[in-house]
Design brief:
The chain is mainly α. Helix content is 76%, strand content 2%. A two-stranded antiparallel sheet has the order 1-2. A two-stranded antiparallel sheet has the order 3-4. Strand 1 and strand 2 form a beta hairpin. The longest helix is centred in the N-terminal third of the chain and has 34 residues. The radius of gyration is 25 Å and the shape is globular.
Length: 569
């Protein structure tokens, strides 16, 4: 009865707030038009022809040896990367949470490793892998004297993607291990169980759903990845690269649409399992925080081997990331390591670098605040308001997380090149900078929304209710009460959206026109030609931009965030 009255009161409040209703309608329209519609048009176009509903296009692509090989390759890489990323992530999380790290150096290493994938372009490690272990590799040719090493293919993709995605698993599992009550493990120790037995019988069963969740996240990221397979894949095609080649090389839009549907089906299935099965189990298994501090492992026989292993992996990853900046100053990689600035000079004099950075920067700068604000609005509606479309808004905004960039790119081509539903409506959108901005927003929306939801759930509802009681409408409450309380998340979402936008490649490479030059497209082009000096120069400048953005965010949060406000109070 009380719930029914509360729901009626909420609906009455909603109907009396035109700004809130307008916001909800606009949001639903945006999410439907730019997320659901492109995916729906892909599915429709792949089965509908002039003769009606047919599955001939699926029969055709399934008969293509290249497509069947691409599916096999994609799943093989996805499972391998998912397993190893989850295991390495677990190792790092366990060492940080359970082992006493006696130096700040190790703590700093862990922090750097977790941050590097965020601030670096997605193809940096592929470039580094080629430069370190390829035929002209610094290690293979320079140190070991191996002149014919082929790093392209499965092993190249596998190693690069594992290095890229295991930090995500590490951050996920770190939070789970932190919330385990130490008394459960200490009880087993008191009964004479060895440390390994405690881990296998107590710790591991508690985090097993979370470990499965980490595996699926890295699996989805792996099969959706376009940049790394494009650069280091060679003839080892994945679904993402096959879709791109089908639409740009074979000019087979319908075949590419059908391939995109297959890839989308795989990622959506994994996303549903990850989101609604494993994530829910992780939450129910581990709820709240540990009741007391954990006694960290100080036994050198355990501490030293684990610490050394993590340090070696971390230093290897950091070394790989540093390889690209170093390569940008080398005259000729593999033959002449004399330092030079000629690649940077050519970036701006010969290859229109200023336009590339200007276009990328401006488009990302426009997309970032839009994404951050939309994320906070969606988070506010999901957490703080009750209405019938709430579940739809949450589900569709998070759906973009499971949609590979190439799938979204093909969906936009099929959906907007001749207008919405081939009517000519919004046809002018295709080929413009606006569609690139929309793609940036859609791709970054899930990350910002997830952060905003977490932050809003920690705010006492009574704070906002007091503002409502004083006669404020939803817009006023959101702008003057809610948003200032979550400005840390807003600033974080702002910078994250900017970094994700300026380093994006998978969707925009299908949508960008000669009118716009994007940094990531330039890097991909030069890497494909084997011009690693130019690719490294572009990538290095991009790394400086993204790293500077993150530092600026940290400075802004430190000086203007909620934590400072609380200290001043």
């Amino acid at each position: 009865m009380a719930k029914s009255q509360s729901a009626q009161l909420e609906r009455k409040k909603l109907l009396g707030d035109p700004i809130l209703i307008t916001t909800i309608v606009v949001l639903i329209a945006f999410l439907t038009l730019f997320i659901l519609y492109p995916l729906a048009i892909l599915m429709v176009d792949s089965v509908v022809s002039d003769n009606g509903v047919t599955f001939d296009v699926f029969t055709r692509i399934l008969a293509m040896p290249s497509f069947s090989h691409a599916i096999t390759n994609t799943l093989r890489v996805g499972f391998a990367v998912g397993i190893l990323s989850a295991l390495i992530g677990l190792l790092f999380a366990y060492v940080e949470m359970y082992v006493k790290l006696r130096t700040k150096f190790m703590t700093g290493l862990f922090r750097v490793v977790s941050m590097l994938p965020v601030v670096s372009p997605p193809f940096v490690l592929s470039l580094s892998m080629i430069m370190m272990f390829g035929k002209k590799g610094l290690i293979t040719r320079g140190l070991l004297g191996i002149f014919d090493n082929n790093i392209y293919g499965f092993w190249g993709i596998f190693i690069v993607q594992t290095m890229s995605f295991f930090p995500v698993c590490y951050m996920m599992l770190k939070g789970l291990l932190k919330n385990i009550d130490p008394s459960l493990e200490e009880a087993a120790r008191d009964m004479g169980a060895s440390r390994w037995k405690v881990f296998t019988s107590v710790t591991l069963p508690l985090i097993l759903p979370g470990l499965g969740n980490a595996f699926l996240v890295s699996f989805i990221e792996s099969i959706a990845d376009f940049a790394n397979p494009m650069i280091i894949g060679g003839s080892y095609d994945t679904l993402a690269t096959t879709i791109y080649l089908q639409i740009t090389g074979a000019y087979d839009k319908q075949g590419a649409a059908a391939m995109a549907v297959v890839l989308l089906s795989i990622t959506l299935l994994m996303f549903v399992v990850q989101k609604f099965v494993l994530e829910a189990k992780s939450t129910s298994t581990l709820s709240g925080k540990a009741t007391r501090a954990r006694m960290l492992i100080t036994d050198n026989s355990v501490r030293i081997p684990l610490t050394i292993l993590c340090a070696l992996v971390a230093l290897f990853v950091i070394g790989m990331y540093l390889c690209v900046p170093y390569g940008s100053f080398v005259r000729s990689w593999g033959s002449n390591y004399e330092l030079t600035t000629k690649w940077f000079e050519q970036v701006f004099t010969k290859y229109h670098g200023l336009q590339a950075f200007s276009d990328s920067f401006m488009l990302s700068l426009i997309a970032a605040p839009i994404t951050a604000l939309l994320s906070m609005i969606i988070s506010y509606l999901v957490v703080k308001r009750r209405f019938r479309g709430r579940g739809f808004i949450e589900a569709v905004s998070m759906l973009a997380m499971a949609v590979p960039g190439t799938v979204l790119g093909v969906g936009y081509i099929r959906g907007f090149s001749s207008g919405v539903m081939h009517t000519g409506f919004l046809q002018g959108l295709y080929g413009t900078g606006l569609i690139l901005i929309i793609v940036f927003v859609v791709r970054s929306l899930p990350t910002g929304t997830r952060s905003g939801i977490s932050a809003l759930r920690q705010i006492d509802k009574s704070i906002e209710e007091s503002a409502y009681d004083m006669g404020a409408d939803s817009f006023t409450v959101f702008m003057t009460v809610t948003l200032p309380l979550i400005k840390d998340s807003f600033l974080s979402g702002l910078v994250t959206a900017f970094v994700r936008s300026i380093t994006a490649i998978s969707a925009v490479i299908l949508l960008v026109t000669p009118e716009f030059l994007l940094i990531t497209v330039q890097i991909n082009e030069f890497a494909g030609k084997g011009s690693y000096g130019m690719a490294c120069a572009f990538a290095t400048i991009l790394i400086v931009i993204t790293y500077g953005s993150v530092l600026l965010m940290n400075w802004a949060i430190k000086h203007f965030g909620t934590s400072r406000a609380l200290k001043e109070e």
